[in-house]
């Protein structure tokens, strides 16, 4: 990738999907824990996923993975969040986390395919 960063519609779609997945991580923490530690669990999962994302998956990450490993990482993160919801059988969370993961993967894949297009 060049030094110049060009936004595409796929970037917006991927970013919106990322926001949803990150929110799902916090929601999973909130759902898993009962009592005063809920907020701490939600914050820990949110901060954890954002840190991982910012290191290896963000568009301007210093150590951004190439496309296939990055899509693999995103898939693993999405499946991990879904598994947290599955552990408490929270179907809305599972569906939203899996859907947002699919949207992110599709948008990043399409953006990579159209990167060289005029």
TrEMBL record:
Annotated transmembrane regions: 12-33, 39-59, 71-88
Keyword field: Membrane, Transmembrane, Transmembrane helix
InterPro entries, A to Z: DUF2568 (IPR021214)
Protein name: YrdB family protein
Species of origin: Kocuria carniphila
Taxonomic lineage of the native organism: Bacteria, Bacillati, Actinomycetota, Actinomycetes, Micrococcales
């Amino acid at each position: 990738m060049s030094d110049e960063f060009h936004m595409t519609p796929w970037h917006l779609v991927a970013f919106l999907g990322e926001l949803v997945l990150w929110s799902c991580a916090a929601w999973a923490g909130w759902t898993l824990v009962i009592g005063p530690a809920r907020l701490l669990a939600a914050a820990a999962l949110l901060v954890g996923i954002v840190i991982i994302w910012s290191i290896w998956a963000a568009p301007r990450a210093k150590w951004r993975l190439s496309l296939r490993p990055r899509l693999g990482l995103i898939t693993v993160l999405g499946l991990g969040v879904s598994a947290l919801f599955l552990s408490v059988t929270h179907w809305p969370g599972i569906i939203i986390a899996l859907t947002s993961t699919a949207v992110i993967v599709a948008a990043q894949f399409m953006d990579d395919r159209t990167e060289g297009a005029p």
